[in-house]
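re: ur question from yesterday

yeah so i grabbed the chain u mentioned. its 236 aa long if i counted rite. heres the sequnce exactly as i have it in my notes:
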Amino acid sequence: WMDRIYAEKKYGFKLYQGGVPPGNSIRVLKVADDVEACGGTHCTSTGLVGPIKILKTERIQDGVERIEYAAGLAAVRAMQKMESYLDQSAEALRVLPEHLPSTIERFFSEWKEFKKENERLKDELAHVRVAGMVNDALDVGGVRVIASLIPGADVEELVKVAGELTQNKDVVAILVSDDEGVKIVAAAGDDALDAGANAGTIVREMSKIVGGGGGGRPNMARGGGVDPLKVNDSLE
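ran it thru and got these C-alpha coordinates back, copy pasting raw so excuse formatting
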Protein backbone atom coordinates (compact mmCIF):
# COMPACT_ATOMS: atom_id res chain seq x y z
CA TRP A 1 0.00 0.00 0.00
CA MET A 2 1.43 3.39 -1.00
CA ASP A 3 0.55 7.04 -0.79
CA ARG A 4 -1.06 7.95 -4.14
CA ILE A 5 1.18 10.99 -4.80
CA TYR A 6 4.35 9.04 -3.99
CA ALA A 7 3.25 6.12 -6.18
CA GLU A 8 2.51 8.45 -9.12
CA LYS A 9 5.95 10.09 -8.77
CA LYS A 10 7.66 6.71 -8.68
CA TYR A 11 5.75 4.84 -11.40
CA GLY A 12 3.88 7.47 -13.41
CA PHE A 13 0.33 7.24 -14.67
CA LYS A 14 0.87 3.77 -16.15
CA LEU A 15 -0.39 2.77 -12.71
CA TYR A 16 -3.90 3.40 -13.97
CA GLN A 17 -3.94 1.22 -17.09
CA GLY A 18 -6.77 -0.78 -15.51
CA GLY A 19 -8.66 2.26 -14.23
CA VAL A 20 -8.23 4.70 -11.36
CA PRO A 21 -8.92 3.25 -7.88
CA PRO A 22 -10.35 5.62 -5.25
CA GLY A 23 -8.60 6.82 -2.10
CA ASN A 24 -5.39 8.58 -1.06
CA SER A 25 -3.68 5.28 -0.38
CA ILE A 26 -3.53 2.76 -3.24
CA ARG A 27 -2.47 -0.85 -3.55
CA VAL A 28 0.39 -1.20 -6.03
CA LEU A 29 1.36 -4.54 -7.53
CA LYS A 30 4.46 -5.19 -9.63
CA VAL A 31 4.76 -8.34 -11.74
CA ALA A 32 7.97 -8.52 -13.79
CA ASP A 33 8.14 -5.16 -15.64
CA ASP A 34 4.44 -4.40 -15.21
CA VAL A 35 3.17 -2.23 -12.38
CA GLU A 36 -0.44 -1.33 -11.68
CA ALA A 37 -2.68 0.12 -8.98
CA CYS A 38 -5.06 -2.73 -8.27
CA GLY A 39 -7.57 -3.65 -5.59
CA GLY A 40 -8.18 -7.11 -6.98
CA THR A 41 -7.22 -10.57 -5.76
CA HIS A 42 -3.72 -11.87 -6.50
CA CYS A 43 -2.44 -15.39 -5.99
CA THR A 44 1.01 -16.92 -6.07
CA SER A 45 -0.26 -19.51 -8.60
CA THR A 46 -3.38 -20.05 -10.71
CA GLY A 47 -3.96 -23.39 -8.98
CA LEU A 48 -5.10 -21.53 -5.87
CA VAL A 49 -8.03 -20.11 -7.83
CA GLY A 50 -9.57 -23.47 -8.68
CA PRO A 51 -11.91 -23.94 -11.65
CA ILE A 52 -12.74 -20.96 -13.87
CA LYS A 53 -15.95 -20.77 -15.93
CA ILE A 54 -16.25 -18.06 -18.59
CA LEU A 55 -19.80 -16.67 -18.42
CA LYS A 56 -19.80 -13.99 -21.11
CA THR A 57 -17.52 -12.05 -23.45
CA GLU A 58 -18.29 -8.58 -24.69
CA ARG A 59 -16.52 -6.23 -27.09
CA ILE A 60 -16.13 -2.82 -25.40
CA GLN A 61 -14.27 -1.05 -28.22
CA ASP A 62 -11.62 -1.81 -30.83
CA GLY A 63 -8.95 -3.94 -29.22
CA VAL A 64 -10.75 -4.14 -25.85
CA GLU A 65 -12.72 -7.19 -24.80
CA ARG A 66 -14.49 -7.74 -21.48
CA ILE A 67 -14.54 -11.29 -20.14
CA GLU A 68 -16.90 -12.13 -17.31
CA TYR A 69 -16.17 -15.33 -15.43
CA ALA A 70 -16.76 -17.16 -12.18
CA ALA A 71 -13.93 -18.74 -10.21
CA GLY A 72 -13.59 -21.28 -7.42
CA LEU A 73 -16.85 -22.28 -5.76
CA ALA A 74 -18.73 -19.68 -7.84
CA ALA A 75 -17.53 -21.47 -10.99
CA VAL A 76 -18.89 -24.78 -9.66
CA ARG A 77 -22.24 -23.12 -8.95
CA ALA A 78 -22.27 -21.58 -12.44
CA MET A 79 -21.68 -24.98 -14.04
CA GLN A 80 -24.40 -26.55 -11.89
CA LYS A 81 -26.78 -23.77 -12.94
CA MET A 82 -25.98 -24.37 -16.62
CA GLU A 83 -26.54 -28.10 -16.14
CA SER A 84 -29.95 -27.37 -14.57
CA TYR A 85 -30.86 -25.33 -17.69
CA LEU A 86 -29.95 -28.33 -19.85
CA ASP A 87 -32.04 -30.64 -17.67
CA GLN A 88 -35.04 -28.27 -17.80
CA SER A 89 -34.75 -27.93 -21.58
CA ALA A 90 -34.47 -31.68 -22.03
CA GLU A 91 -37.50 -32.24 -19.80
CA ALA A 92 -39.53 -29.65 -21.74
CA LEU A 93 -38.70 -31.39 -25.03
CA ARG A 94 -39.02 -34.85 -23.45
CA VAL A 95 -35.58 -36.02 -24.60
CA LEU A 96 -32.27 -36.87 -22.95
CA PRO A 97 -29.83 -33.93 -22.58
CA GLU A 98 -27.44 -35.51 -25.09
CA HIS A 99 -30.23 -35.50 -27.69
CA LEU A 100 -30.94 -31.77 -27.31
CA PRO A 101 -28.81 -30.55 -30.29
CA SER A 102 -30.43 -32.90 -32.82
CA THR A 103 -33.93 -32.32 -31.40
CA ILE A 104 -33.60 -28.54 -31.51
CA GLU A 105 -32.21 -28.70 -35.04
CA ARG A 106 -35.22 -30.81 -36.09
CA PHE A 107 -37.69 -28.45 -34.42
CA PHE A 108 -36.02 -25.44 -36.04
CA SER A 109 -36.19 -27.05 -39.49
CA GLU A 110 -39.87 -27.87 -38.98
CA TRP A 111 -40.54 -24.32 -37.76
CA LYS A 112 -38.95 -22.88 -40.93
CA GLU A 113 -41.13 -25.15 -43.08
CA PHE A 114 -44.26 -24.12 -41.16
CA LYS A 115 -43.28 -20.48 -41.58
CA LYS A 116 -42.94 -20.92 -45.35
CA GLU A 117 -46.30 -22.67 -45.49
CA ASN A 118 -47.85 -19.89 -43.43
CA GLU A 119 -46.50 -17.26 -45.84
CA ARG A 120 -47.87 -19.23 -48.80
CA LEU A 121 -51.32 -19.46 -47.20
CA LYS A 122 -51.27 -15.74 -46.41
CA ASP A 123 -50.50 -15.02 -50.07
CA GLU A 124 -53.40 -17.20 -51.18
CA LEU A 125 -55.72 -15.56 -48.65
CA ALA A 126 -54.63 -12.13 -49.88
CA HIS A 127 -55.58 -13.07 -53.45
CA VAL A 128 -59.02 -14.28 -52.33
CA ARG A 129 -59.68 -11.18 -50.24
CA VAL A 130 -58.53 -8.82 -53.00
CA ALA A 131 -61.06 -10.19 -55.47
CA GLY A 132 -63.96 -9.40 -53.14
CA MET A 133 -62.66 -6.03 -51.94
CA VAL A 134 -62.15 -4.54 -55.39
CA ASN A 135 -65.84 -5.14 -56.17
CA ASP A 136 -66.83 -3.21 -53.03
CA ALA A 137 -64.59 -0.17 -53.71
CA LEU A 138 -66.11 3.32 -53.39
CA ASP A 139 -65.51 5.90 -56.13
CA VAL A 140 -64.15 9.13 -54.64
CA GLY A 141 -63.28 11.70 -57.29
CA GLY A 142 -62.23 9.09 -59.81
CA VAL A 143 -60.21 7.09 -57.29
CA ARG A 144 -61.42 3.72 -56.03
CA VAL A 145 -61.18 3.68 -52.23
CA ILE A 146 -61.23 0.43 -50.27
CA ALA A 147 -61.53 0.87 -46.48
CA SER A 148 -61.88 -2.42 -44.65
CA LEU A 149 -61.42 -4.11 -41.27
CA ILE A 150 -59.62 -7.48 -41.43
CA PRO A 151 -60.05 -9.02 -37.95
CA GLY A 152 -57.01 -10.68 -36.41
CA ALA A 153 -54.62 -9.92 -39.30
CA ASP A 154 -51.03 -8.95 -38.49
CA VAL A 155 -49.25 -6.04 -40.15
CA GLU A 156 -47.47 -8.19 -42.74
CA GLU A 157 -50.79 -9.67 -43.84
CA LEU A 158 -52.27 -6.18 -44.18
CA VAL A 159 -49.26 -5.10 -46.25
CA LYS A 160 -49.66 -8.10 -48.57
CA VAL A 161 -53.34 -7.39 -49.17
CA ALA A 162 -52.72 -3.66 -49.66
CA GLY A 163 -49.94 -4.43 -52.15
CA GLU A 164 -52.24 -6.73 -54.11
CA LEU A 165 -55.04 -4.14 -54.16
CA THR A 166 -52.83 -1.30 -55.39
CA GLN A 167 -51.68 -3.25 -58.39
CA ASN A 168 -54.85 -1.61 -59.63
CA LYS A 169 -53.32 1.83 -60.16
CA ASP A 170 -56.48 3.80 -59.35
CA VAL A 171 -56.98 2.16 -55.93
CA VAL A 172 -56.36 3.54 -52.44
CA ALA A 173 -56.40 0.67 -49.91
CA ILE A 174 -57.01 1.45 -46.23
CA LEU A 175 -56.83 -1.71 -44.12
CA VAL A 176 -57.25 -2.06 -40.36
CA SER A 177 -56.84 -4.96 -37.94
CA ASP A 178 -57.77 -5.35 -34.26
CA ASP A 179 -54.74 -7.58 -33.60
CA GLU A 180 -53.19 -6.60 -30.23
CA GLY A 181 -54.67 -3.11 -30.32
CA VAL A 182 -55.09 -1.53 -33.74
CA LYS A 183 -52.91 -2.05 -36.81
CA ILE A 184 -53.33 0.25 -39.82
CA VAL A 185 -51.88 -0.03 -43.33
CA ALA A 186 -52.66 2.26 -46.26
CA ALA A 187 -51.40 2.08 -49.84
CA ALA A 188 -52.02 4.05 -53.03
CA GLY A 189 -51.60 3.05 -56.67
CA ASP A 190 -49.79 5.27 -59.19
CA ASP A 191 -52.95 6.88 -60.63
CA ALA A 192 -54.30 7.49 -57.11
CA LEU A 193 -51.03 9.19 -56.21
CA ASP A 194 -51.34 11.43 -59.28
CA ALA A 195 -54.82 12.33 -58.07
CA GLY A 196 -53.39 13.52 -54.73
CA ALA A 197 -53.77 10.49 -52.48
CA ASN A 198 -51.16 10.17 -49.71
CA ALA A 199 -51.02 6.95 -47.68
CA GLY A 200 -48.71 8.50 -45.08
CA THR A 201 -51.16 11.31 -44.30
CA ILE A 202 -54.09 8.87 -44.15
CA VAL A 203 -52.34 6.57 -41.67
CA ARG A 204 -51.13 9.47 -39.53
CA GLU A 205 -54.64 10.90 -39.15
CA MET A 206 -56.24 7.49 -38.55
CA SER A 207 -53.64 6.58 -35.92
CA LYS A 208 -54.44 9.73 -33.93
CA ILE A 209 -58.06 8.59 -33.62
CA VAL A 210 -57.10 5.19 -32.17
CA GLY A 211 -54.60 6.66 -29.72
CA GLY A 212 -51.34 5.96 -31.52
CA GLY A 213 -49.12 7.14 -34.34
CA GLY A 214 -47.73 6.20 -37.71
CA GLY A 215 -46.87 7.37 -41.17
CA GLY A 216 -44.74 6.54 -44.16
CA ARG A 217 -44.40 7.12 -47.87
CA PRO A 218 -47.26 8.43 -50.04
CA ASN A 219 -47.60 5.01 -51.69
CA MET A 220 -47.35 2.83 -48.54
CA ALA A 221 -47.61 3.58 -44.82
CA ARG A 222 -48.35 1.82 -41.58
CA GLY A 223 -49.31 2.75 -38.05
CA GLY A 224 -51.73 1.91 -35.29
CA GLY A 225 -52.97 2.61 -31.79
CA VAL A 226 -54.25 1.19 -28.55
CA ASP A 227 -58.03 1.82 -28.75
CA PRO A 228 -59.83 -0.86 -30.81
CA LEU A 229 -63.20 0.72 -29.94
CA LYS A 230 -62.30 3.60 -32.29
CA VAL A 231 -61.53 1.36 -35.30
CA ASN A 232 -64.73 2.23 -37.14
CA ASP A 233 -64.27 5.93 -36.41
CA SER A 234 -60.78 5.82 -37.92
CA LEU A 235 -62.08 4.02 -41.03
CA GLU A 236 -64.81 6.63 -41.48
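noticed a couple things. The mean pLDDT is 90. also The radius of gyration is 31 Å.
anyway ttyl
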